[in-house]
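Quarterly update from the structural biology core.
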Amino acid sequence: MPLDFTAIDFETANSSSASACSVGLVKVRDGRVVDTASWLIKPPPGHDAFLEWNIRIHGIHARDVTDARGWAAQFADLVGFAGDDAFVAHNAGFDMGVIRGACAATGIRCPGYDYLCSLQVARKTYSLDSYRLPVAAMAAGFEGFHHHEALADAEACAAIVVHAAGRHGARSLEELAAKVPVRMGRIGEVAAAA
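Predicted structure, tokenized:
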């Protein structure tokens, strides 16, 4: 199996997992970035308050998403981009929680996806003082990106996993997870039934 996956990163308007306001996606094929996408998302009613703390982190204001499509309107694009790939995210519990939360808030069935956390991979690959995304990305040779911009964060996450796979001699995401070792997670109905 080749090193194929989709790296994903969300920014949120507030502490609600349903408040996605931006997404970045990076498609990796055989360890190389082959496509990227990003867009703004209008959070659903009840989850659409933009808190000052979040705005300071990512710089996205409510006015920026006024004309953006909502989660339900854009979710097919996200799923279409990812296809059957496993997701990779830095602190994946957060990003997978956004998918679950936004789907629940908009009445969409959460699809089944395997995922790997690049934060866990970094902790078992590098010896660092911090495993925050910018520090771990620097260890992987990916520097100078705009942290908390969803696409840039997804690119950094992809770079960590590709670099770690090379370091561990892994040819696939599953092999990397086994060699590090970390557990691959699963979201969706299959995960809920397991």
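The CA atoms of residues 52 and 169 lie 43 Å apart.
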